Structure formats: C-alpha cells, structure tokens
Amino acid sequence: AVNMAQYTRDESVAVRQDLNIDEKVQIGKYASSLIEKDDFVYIDAGTTTDFLIDFLTEQDAVYVTNGIMHAKKLTQKECKVYLIGGELKEATLALVGEEAMKTLGRYHFTKGFFGTNGINVEKGYTTPDVKEAMVKKKAMANCRQCYILGDKSKFAQISSVTFAPFASADVITTGLTLESYRKYKNIKEVEE
Fold this sequence. Notes:
The protein starts with 12 loop residues before the first helix and ends with a strand. Strand 7 and strand 8 form a beta hairpin. The strands form three sheets. It has a seven-stranded parallel sheet with strand order 3-2-1-6-9-11-12, with helices on both faces. Strands 7-8-10 form a three-stranded antiparallel sheet. A two-stranded antiparallel sheet has the order 4-5. Helix content is 28%, strand content 26%. The chain has helices at 13-17, 21-32, 47-55, 68-76, 98-104, 130-141; strands at 40-43, 62-65, 80-83, 87-89, 94-96, 109-114, 118-120, 124-127, 143-149, 161-164, 170-173, 187-189.
C-alpha cells in the first residue's frame, strides 16, 4: 500500500521553502531560460516556481500567476504581471476557487510552469488540495506548452488529487535517482 498520510495536506510555504534548495535553484534557473520575448506565461504558486522568478530576465513577456508572493516578486523585477482573482489559501498563498477558474478560462498561455507534490507515471501529477488541483488543471489546459518543476523527492509519489496526466507536461528536474523515470522523453534532467 502507498503511504499517503504525509501527502494529504500542504506544508506551509515557510516549511517547504527550505527543502531541497540547491535542486530547486537549478530547476528554476533552467526553467527561466525557456521564457522568451512576447511569451504569455502562467506561473503556478509554489516554492519551486518561486526560484524560477529569481532567475527571470525576460521583461518583454507577460506573466500571470495565482501566487501572491510571485506577483510581488515579478513587479519588483519590473515585469508586466496579472494576478488572477479568487479565494486566498493560507498555506500556499495561492488564489483558488471559482473566481480563479473564471479568469483562467479567458487566458491562452504560450508556456506554463507548475509545481506538484507528486510525479507518478500512472497517476500523473498530484496535489493535496482539491481547489488547487482544479486551478492547476484549468491553467494547464490553456497552455500551449506545460512544464512541471519537480525535484527528485516528488518522483513516484502520489498525493490526494490528480490535476494532469503524466504525458501532458515536460518535467524539469535534477539529480534524479529513480532510474525507471529516465526512459521517459518528457523528463528533462538539468545539471549545474
């Protein structure tokens, strides 16, 4: 049986911010290099996507996010940023709910960058929160190209709710220890 107890709720941003920092930095750095002039980019709330923003240099793109802290950081980098509306979830500082879904339905992104709690070939990409899963799913459906940013601790894990199938996104990771995942063409392992 899969031990799902520890994956049924989100740890707070403060707790997750300090986990696997070196890997998240490498993943974020690589992901930021994929953003080009005139891209219309969705950045999902989360700690790994936060590192992407740290390395962001493309100011001639437009950014949309459901992360309060992400929006603040993007404006400090003098980027054009839109924050979707909705209910604010305390643990992740993410906007979720019906209002968020409505806003996302109007947007068509060239690229989207998403966090996840679990990466599993059969169960896809998973997260503990139903409302967050719905927002991720809606945003991904409206992206031409989807990227999942996930350090090696997320592989072969399953959280409560699937928001997308495994083949629907390219995974950016580093230091992958599970050999069985190396054969998949949608997994991009980055090195420093």
